[in-house]
Amino acid sequence: MNKLLFNTLVIPLFYFISVWPFWLLHAFSFCVYALVYHIIGYRKKVVIQNLKKSFPQKTDKEIKQITKQFYKHLCDVIFETLKLLTISSKQFKKHFILTQNAINQFTYFETKQQSIIGVMGHCGNWEWGAIAPQFYFKQLLTGVYHPLSNKNFDAFMLKLRGRMGGNIVAMNNLLRELITLRQKKTATIVGLIADQTPPPEGSHWTSFLNQDTPIFFGPEKLSKKFNYPVVYISIKKIKRSYYQMDTELITNAPNELAEGVITELHTKALEKNIIEQPQFWLWSHRRWKHKKPN
User: pLDDT band at 165, cuts 50/70/90?
Assistant: First the structure.
């Protein structure tokens, strides 16, 4: 679809859906779930295989239950993400709350004008989580993303994620951007999604959800290069379209830790986040497609 058709047909449709009340979004989300899970079976084999390997102690009945809950949640996330186009600050803060611990931690670094590395995974609604600090704090949020192959959707997602003034940067431009911000003495929260699949060579390998798993070294390398504290950001789903964010300080002194320690710590924090609510992680991702090199 060319840019003109996308902007005249698709974008207005997205805005139309965005103004729907949550009960209507939930109704349409359930219809999409029925189509995706029961009829299309989108990546169902991948999801079930990932769950069985991650939770070998669970029965087939339990795996099936988690699978269904995951697909229902995934469809909710799609409609909730569109809701970001028009949701007010007041309504967002009603549906996405921060624990007092998270508020205290973010406020502490904001007051000190200290940049931090925020690490999170595809838990709960990660799109809401990636934008949430913009609704609560004045400190600049630098969100990191991988450009989408579809340029129309890429431009749309950039606009969506930066709606509240966030600084959205492509991964390959991040280092230059952080150097520029430091020169300007602008403190920022660097938001990184750390549960994607990196190339097996040069990655940090660890045991994650009972499997040998490559982990990006990016958060650790950036924290050591700039001497920025590292914070793991967890998202818990309270009920449908209601979430809670918490934070866990990984380290205040990254350069005092041996290589690999920071990566291990934020990966274990992510694993704990997933185990607490396994149905709300992105199981359709082919996370374990690489084998550990000999």
Answer: confident
Alpha-carbon distances, residue 253 vs 32, 71, 224, 226, 257 (angstroms)? 46, 40, 9, 11, 7
The DSSP-derived string for 225-257 is: HHT--EEEEEEEEEETTEEEEEEEEEES-GGGS
The reply to whether 18 falls in a domain is yes
* Domain count across the chain: 1
Model pTM? 0.94
Question: What is the rounded CA–CA span in Å between residue 98 and residue 150?
Answer: 33
Separation of alpha carbons 100 and 288, rounded Å: 35
Task: For 140, list phi and psi in degrees, rounded to 5.
Answer: -60, 135
Q: Is 121 helix (H, G, I), strand (E, B) or coil?
A: coil
Cα-based angle 221, 224, 225 (whole degrees, multiple of 5)? 80
Report if residue 142 sits inside a domain. Answer: yes
Write out pLDDT tens, residues 226-241. Answer: 999 999 999 999 999 9
- The DSSP call for residue 11 is H
Q: Which domain holds residue 125?
A: 3-280
289 belongs to a structural domain: no
pLDDT exceeds 80 at position 96: yes
